[in-house]
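Weekly structure sync, notes
Attendees: PL, DS, HV (note-taker this week)

Item 1: FAS1 domain-containing protein
DS walked through the input record. Source organism listed as Opuntia streptacantha. Sequence as pasted into the shared doc:
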Amino acid sequence: MARSCSSSHWWHAPIYLSISLVLAAIAMTSPPSSSSSSLSPQTISLNASTTLRSHGFTIIATLLQLSPDLFLSNSNSTVFAIHDDAVSNLTAPPSAIKLLLHYHTLPCKFSLQQLLLKPHNACLPTSIPSKNLALTKIDPQNRFIEINNVPISHPDLFLDHSVSIHGVLGPFSSLDAHQIQSGRDFIHSPPCNFLNSSKWSSKTSERPDNWARMIRLLSSKGFISFAIGLNSVLHGILEDYPNLGPLTVFVPPEFEFVSSSGPFLDRVVRYHIVGRRYFYSELASLPEKAQMMTLLREEALEITSSVNGSHVLRINGAYIVSPDVFSTEMFVAHAISRAFQVPHRANS
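Item 1 (cont.): predicted structure, written out as tokens:
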């Protein structure tokens, strides 16, 4: 029986048809490129496309050549090109493909050598403001890297002074057909450590007004004991982390540690702050046992019960009783059922 054209799965079409629709959408919505390279984006894309095609990245090469602004809209860019074998049978609407490609593009330039110098599990910001990649494996001796557990198979495939392109074996995020159809966010950033990452933005949380505002908000929401504890150890946090980016704070209703000694109070407060801003929807999408690095060095919080697994979200055994209590450009706070127990270290 012939399939109806009105089927809800209209986008289950060959990848080249989807690409054509993506290009049409981009042509209508993309602004002119602002690349500062000595070569025009069109020249860069032509040269890069030739290299990509010769190594089995024909689909990405076609997109790059016909619509360079999809990848080169920033003055500096890193592009992770997905091999044809991984996307030739891809079925998704144009908007989802465009979003997936933006997730494979960074607004900064990194060669393989620069990536090898980064610490394990460091975050990489993508062209989607709220989404990041994670350096899940780094082997400097063998010059090998995995990002989101996907190997870079063709490092430094194309290098220009403003653009780096690396080939990867597969996409960094799966395309879940159910999530796409329901309009849900299908790209889930892996847990990573922003504290070991480079300074991506001029916006930092070291400015006293940002922290003072958060402490006032905590007090106004009834978390007075935690606000007092944070204010007591804030100077040390800012000394250790002068360039903190957006953060997540987990606040208990009662913070009995507020009268503890200075060093211990400092450890407990840091253990309740994660070096990345997680709204509840993002936390709920994390799998069980996913980890989030805290400001307490080498210590992470863990998802101990996921929404998908039990319909209740717990972190280190504590329930999130009031998600997204407040949020600013630099912080988001979640109320938890009890304070986290700080891991004991013999030399701490």
